[in-house]
Amino acid sequence: MTLVRGWWWLLLAPLFSLVIFRESLGTWFFKDDFAWLGLGLSIYDFPSLLDALFAPKAQGTIRPLSDRLPFLLGYGLFGLDARPFRIFIFAVHSANLILLAWLVFRWTASRVAAVAAAVIWTAHSSIAQPLSWNSSMNQVLWPACMLAAFQAREVGRNAREWVFFLLGFGVLELNVVYPALVLARFPERWRTTIPLFVASGVYTVFNRWVTPPNSNPLYAMDFRPASILETLWRYLQMSMGSFRPDFRPELAEFLLGCTVVAVAGFLLGLALERDRLMFFGLAWFVICLGPVLLLRQHISDYYLAVPSAGLGIAFGLSFARRPLLLALPVLAYLTGSLVVSREITHYNRHESDLARNLVLGVKQAAALHPDKIILLAGITNDQFWGAVVDSPFRLIPGAKVYLVPGSEKNIDAHPELGDPSLSILPAAAARRALDTNQAIVYSAGGSPLRNVTNLYRGIAALEWGDSLAAIVDVGQPLLASQLGTGWENIDQGFRWMGPSAEITLGGPGNELFVECFRAENEPRQELVKLDIYSGETWVGSFSVPRRERFVGKLIIPPALAALPRLPLRLTVTPPVVTPDDRRSLGLAFGTIGRRVTVP
After folding, report:
1. Quick one: 177 and 320 in the same domain?
2. Is residue 97 part of a domain?
3. Which of 410, 336, 349 has its CA nearest to residue 129?
4. Residue 223, Cβ density class (10 Å: 0-12 exposed, 13-18 middle, ≥19 buried)
């Protein structure tokens, strides 16, 4: 009873968070979630398990304890039930709020300051994203490691601090800033932070060494001081949590007013108090934000989720010291932040509902029509970029799902995110599948999905001609007519070629791309050369490394790019000989295609 009476106030911030983010408890999976949920599909032995957990993925990140293990375990234990993910994320965030409140109370002996710090942190609009999107749970797990490490340092548990500090590297690479936070809080203990800085330095070198160069311009680092200051200013504009008029343009003036009142009040409180702990809160904000200031082209609100804990410390203490003076600024801060948080939460819930209706509808359709191709009509732009692009249907055993020809007309182009044409069954193959009763068409424009196969039989006869497909999934038997000599039978959705194989692609297209596979344990050298010819003309070549999946792209010579039919010959050096039947094989292929790109 003494514990309940004495520590009940630590639960106030978690209860407040549960109330304002309760809609997030019903959020399903969407966007990158499906990519991480499907991670286990590539695991078939211990080396592939290590690859799934530790191989650089998604812009070269290595996050086994956030992006990998929770999804592997969650999907393995609960399948497509998102509720365990929601409960886990909220539980960790509640623990974070309790840890922050406990630390502030230990530093100030003020329950008001402790509760205010945690409430101001969880009310920040940047928290809405990690609490309503599973793929950003690293923004919840990382502060758990840092706050637990801080708590261990406070009570003199050095070994425990190191455990949580090192675990943080498995959650998020931004964990390298932890030693700087310790130094900012305890400058007199600078000697004990040196080993922490060394560990962060070693991790940074190791991370840069093992991760391949990032070709995505969104994640290009810009080290120019002017660029860093400009990015910092943009984050400062967002830092009050309510400076997001893009969510509700009609409330832009109201949100701006909330921001002005909050900033003015907090700056006045900071000027009057000049408390060292308050300045530590501001240092926390800048230090945690520091590494992402290099990403000028990728400014995201959830990057403020952990830095905003520093605002909670600074402004919570300011409110505790001068409650009458700070009452109105805190109210303005909470009001504006909660308006934006609600918009973010509602948007994510809507996106996840669209994905849930689509994926579970397809799951039901696959159960009703086993062994048939499912063609989806009426896919909206939000449905594609919120679900389809990340291949959610591979999570449905046996499902073969494509979009109907012409679906790209309803989908906005985002080449940095993906290519819609890879999800669309070519017109000739779709028509053949319907004519031979191998496919069924469902309209995905509403919930539930509707069977519209009869309607599309007429559309196929009128609009889907017999022209060659520009993109060929060689593991799809409906497109086998475009394959020449040198191909093996379909094996588990792929098709092996011999040392040489032929294929003909339709047009138009000035870029050629191939998707091929090599096993990790095959007895060939590290790089295998794939040469591509059209007749006697050399089109280009790729050096295919020994890894699970390789995607290569090259520009087709202008004279060949103009051809409506492009015959190709693929040759692999050296081939590999199978130990059982002594067949000579080149590579296993998924998709080969051509498309139009803007130079």
Report:
1. yes
2. yes
3. 349
4. exposed
Most confident of 65-79, 329-343, 580-594: 65-79
340, 264: one domain: yes
Q: How far is CA 235 from CA 144, 238, 267, in A?
A: 23, 5, 17
User: Does 135 fall in a domain?
Assistant: yes
pTM, full prediction: 0.85
**453 and 377 fall within a common domain:** yes
pLDDT at 134 exceeding the cut of 50? yes
Q: How far apart are CA 211 and CA 410, in angstroms?
A: 36
Average pLDDT score, the chain: 87
How many domains is the chain partitioned into structurally? 3
Domain boundary residue, one of 466, 496, 520: 466
Does pLDDT of 208 surpass 90? no
Same domain? For 259 and 317 the reply is yes
**What proportions of the chain, in percent to the nearest 5, are helix, strand and coil?**
60, 15, 25
DSSP state of 504: E
The confidence band for 1, taking pLDDT boundaries of 50, 70 and 90, is very low
Give whichever of 49-63, 540-554, 560-574 has the largest mean pLDDT: 560-574
Burial class (CB in 10 A: 0-12, 13-18, 19+), 93: buried
**Which of 267-271, 360-364, 369-373, 538-542 is predicted with the least confidence, judged by mean pLDDT?**
267-271
- State whether 264 and 341 are in the same domain: yes
Let me know whether 329 and 374 are in one domain.
no
Which ranges in 8-133 belong to alpha helices (H)? 12-20, 33-37, 46-54, 69-78, 83-108, 111-123, 128-132
ω into 523 cis (within 30 of 0):
no
CA-to-CA distance for 283 and 285, rounded, in angstroms? 5
**Same domain as 376, residue 306:** no
> Residue 568's closest CA among 578, 553, 556, 583?
556
- pLDDT at 599 > cutoff 90: no
Q: What is the CATH number of the domain that holds 551?
A: 2.60.120.260
Instruction: Give me the pLDDT at residue 598, please.
Output: 66
Name every residue whose Cβ is closer than 8 Å to that of residue 580 and which is 6 or more positions away in sequence. none
Residue 381 sits in which domain range? Answer: 369-466
Domain boundary among 300, 318, 350: 350
Give the whole-angstrom CA distance, residue 189 versus residue 202: 21
pLDDT tens track for 240-296: 656 555 566 666 667 777 777 777 877 777 777 778 888 898 899 999 998 888 888
What pLDDT shows up at residue 30? 94
Residue 220 lies in a domain: no
Are 128 and 19 in a shared domain?
Answer: yes
How far apart are alpha carbons 270 and 325 in whole angstroms? 12
